[in-house]
Design a protein that fits this description.
By secondary structure, the chain is of the alpha/beta class. The chain has helices at 13-24, 31-39, 43-49, 52-67, 87-94, 104-112, 126-145, 158-172, and strands at residues 2-6, 28-30, 74-76, 95-100, 149-151. The chain has one domain (2-166): 3-Layer(aba) Sandwich (Rossmann fold). The protein has a five-stranded parallel beta sheet with strand order 2-3-1-4-5, sandwiched between helices. Helix 2 packs across helix 4 (52-67). The relative contact order is 0.20.
Length: 174
Amino acid sequence: MHVSLIGFMGSGKTTVGQALADRLGRPFVDTDKEVERMLGMSVRDIFDNLGEPAFREAEQDALSDALRPLDPIVLATGGGTPCADGAMEWMRRRSLVIALQPPLDTLLERLQQGQEHRPLIHDKSGPELKRVVERMMLTRAACYGSAHVTWKQDLTSDEALDDALASIQWRLEP
């Protein structure tokens, strides 16, 4: 069974996903990287030059392509990927969906580093950044809440990640 990581931007999907893929001996796929490969430009450039709708369409193509094969992978999605119409249903049918949900302060700290690469928040800071993030998280709460599993713990240590993996290992067995 595939493993799909969902959560808000900065929640750690790529970092945790790569580590899980290594531990499970599976390929790692990141939908944002796949969209960049498909369209030949960075996410920020896609938003700037083609617009968010073009990005979202390519994102859904990347999601569909990633989960179609039978050989299991670990997939990191973009923050909005599972919230598109039908996306979460597809993900739940084809994979174990894990929502990463770090504390808001942790998320904001991460987002302030490298936010120039995040088109939805690149020009926000301080209280405005916090308001935008809280609003976006609220609109995505139902989507993220339909994951099979939610991990709220700090997964930056090997031990914490190993414990989290141990808690779902039985669900990955054929």
